[in-house]
């Protein structure tokens, strides 16, 4: 008996007990209560790197503003980015609109794995989720939750950060997924990982439908599995960010259309952490004169592979700054998407 055959024999009861558990414990979520390819797709993109509780209000607002793929395809980019503000990873929103324009031009949502995977911003997991949930196709959707659950059930010591491990578990799930309820199966896996088979050392094993076949539980190895060995370290970048005020308005500039946070509005900033004297020199280079140094704050923001360590200066200045800068009051700022990376400084803004 091969290794895969042994795993299939061990996991044979799993689909049945998982679906029975899901029928009783499934989470009520807006994209599940009304299912369509468009709603499933948008929700899955929003849920990347983001908690369900945080996504729900964004999803409601997004559907109200862009109820169809055609509405998203024709949306104003500034409005789209504003609606996405706070979700982070803004390339997701740009790819959503790029894909929406492709779908709108084709006249219907693609229904094959290869066609869905070819859309901007869609990978293996999202393609599987869309095809199984919205179209009833038996395609697995393997994300971090699934890798954690299956690593524990099978007792696997393979590094889940390696592509070969993901491919191995995807092949296993392709054998286990039931043809009659593929969408429910994939969503049950999501719910089990999110609510029971939790990361860290405290999964709720007593509530798990797979507890009788779980190797990690039988061996007391829940804290050890899954194995995660990262080969890359997060790069640290230091920046100085300026919250510049003039006549009650704050300065914003728009990022270029390439790179991290492209196309969004931001507070002026420069590389490195400057002391007040060096910060004053930077203001002079921008043609600004500081009248009053109001506050200095230190904050950070973590991206997937980068950590920004920032010092922020809130300063009253005179001057207009470089060409292209906007000086916005509270109402004007609210219309523009400012990345959450700068939230540590945004909350220092005077309100009202």
Describe it.
With 352 residues, this protein is α+β, with helices and mostly antiparallel strands. The protein folds into two domains: 3-219, Hypothetical protein, domain 2 (Endonuclease III, domain 1), CATH 1.10.340.30; 235-346, Nucleoside Triphosphate Pyrophosphohydrolase, CATH 3.90.79.10. It has 17 helices and seven strands. Strands 1, 2, 3, 4, 5, 6 and 7 form a seven-stranded mixed β-sheet that branches. The radius of gyration is 24 Å and the shape is elongated. The mean pLDDT is 91.
CATH uppermost class of the largest domain: Mainly Alpha
What is the makeup of the main sheet?
7 strands, mixed
Strand content: 15-25%
Cα-based radius of gyration, to the nearest Å: 24 Å
CATH superfamily of the largest domain: Hypothetical protein, domain 2
Q: Assign an overall shape.
A: elongated
* Alpha plus pi helix count: 17
Question: Alpha-carbon distance between the termini?
Answer: 71 Å
Mean pLDDT: 91
């Amino acid at each position: 008996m091969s290794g895969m055959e042994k795993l299939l024999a061990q996991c044979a009861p799993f689909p049945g007990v998982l679906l029975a558990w899901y029928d009783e414990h499934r989470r009520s979520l807006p994209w599940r209560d009304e299912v369509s390819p468009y709603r499933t797709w948008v929700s899955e993109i929003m849920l990347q790197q983001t908690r369900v509780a945080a996504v729900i209000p964004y999803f409601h607002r997004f559907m109200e503003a862009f109820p169809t793929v055609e509405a998203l395809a024709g949306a104003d980019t500034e409005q789209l980015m504003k609606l996405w503000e706070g979700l982070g990873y803004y390339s997701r929103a740009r790819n959503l609109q790029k894909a929406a324009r492709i779908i709108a031009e084709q006249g219907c949502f693609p229904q094959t794995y290869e066609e869905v995977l070819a859309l901007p911003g869609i990978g293996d997991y999202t393609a599987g989720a869309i095809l199984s949930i919205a179209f009833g196709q038996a395609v697995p959707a393997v994300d971090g939750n699934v890798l954690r659950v299956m690593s524990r059930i099978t007792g696997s010591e393979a590094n889940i950060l390696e592509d070969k491990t993901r491919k191995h578990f995807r092949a296993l799930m392709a054998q286990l997924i039931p043809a009659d309820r593929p969408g429910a199966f994939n969503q049950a896996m999501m719910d089990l990982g999110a609510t029971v088979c939790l990361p860290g050392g405290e999964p709720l094993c007593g509530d798990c439908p797979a507890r009788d076949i779980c190797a990690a539980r039988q061996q007391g190895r829940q804290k050890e599995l899954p194995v995660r060995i990262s080969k890359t370290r997060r790069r640290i970048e230091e920046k100085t960010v300026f919250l510049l005020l003039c006549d009650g308005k704050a300065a914003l500039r728009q990022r270029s259309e390439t790179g991290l946070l492209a196309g969004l509005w931001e507070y002026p900033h420069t590389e490195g952490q400057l002391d007040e004297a060096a910060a004053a020199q930077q203001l002079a280079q921008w043609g600004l004169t500081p009248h009053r140094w109001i506050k200095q704050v230190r904050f950070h923001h973590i991206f997937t592979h980068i950590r920004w360590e920032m010092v922020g200066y809130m300063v009253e200045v005179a001057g207009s700054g470089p060409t292209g800068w906007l000086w916005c009051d509270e109402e004007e700022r609210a219309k523009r998407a400012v990345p959450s990376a700068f939230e540590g400084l945004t909350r220092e803004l005077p309100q009202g």
